[in-house]
Amino acid sequence: MAEATWSVGRIAERCGVNVSTLHFYEKKGLIKSWRNSGNQRRYKPDVMRRVAVIKAAQKVGIDLESIKLAIATLPENRTPSIKDWEKLGTLWRDELNAKIAYMKKLRDSMTSCIGCGCLSMKKCPLYNQDDKLAIEGSGAVILDRV
């Protein structure tokens, strides 16, 4: 097992993230560091692969909680291997497909609305005169119907 001798700055530089990002990931339980005798954070070099997985998952729209839950399924909470990454990708595939389908429906329903310039409030699917939709909950409830 590799020694935990890499500084937070060195890991941040190699991973292309800010030091604060590593601190944030650690606070969220996504990565782990150790303290040396001078009470400075030290990382094992394999944390770079874990950060790469986190960044890749975030880039495709996976939230940190889903990432944390998926990484926690790995034996001994280890850094993902290529085979592990395939398993993680499979776990996230359904979530991504649902997001893609939602975004396609949203895109298709918004086309005429975006082009109208809000000149026809009677035809606009987003218009909510007198806040009639309040009983359905907060937020853009019509958009969630698509």
If you had to describe this structure to a student in words, what would you say it looks like?
By secondary structure, the protein is mainly alpha-helical. It has one domain (6-117): Multidrug-efflux Transporter Regulator, Chain: A, Domain 2. The protein is built from five helices and three strands. The protein has helices spanning 8-15, 19-27, 47-59, 64-72, 82-116, and strands at residues 6-7, 34-35, 41-43. The chain has a three-stranded antiparallel sheet. Strand 2 (34-35) and strand 3 form a beta hairpin.
Mean pLDDT: 81
Taken as a percent bin, the fraction of beta residues is under 5%
Q: Given the helix and strand composition, which structural class is it?
A: mainly alpha
Order of strands side by side in the largest beta sheet?
1-3-2
SSE order: EHHEEHHH
The shape, in one word, is elongated
For the largest beta-sheet, the strand count, sense and barrel status come to: 3 strands, antiparallel
Note the gap between the termini: 50 Å
**Can you count the beta strands?**
3
Q: How helical, in percent, are the residues?
A: 40-55%
Q: So what's the CATH class?
A: Mainly Alpha
Q: What is the number of helical segments per DSSP (H or I, 4+ residues)?
A: 5
| Count of domains | 1
* Rg (C-alpha, Å): 22 Å
**Fold-level CATH name:** Multidrug-efflux Transporter Regulator, Chain: A, Domain 2
CATH architecture: Orthogonal Bundle
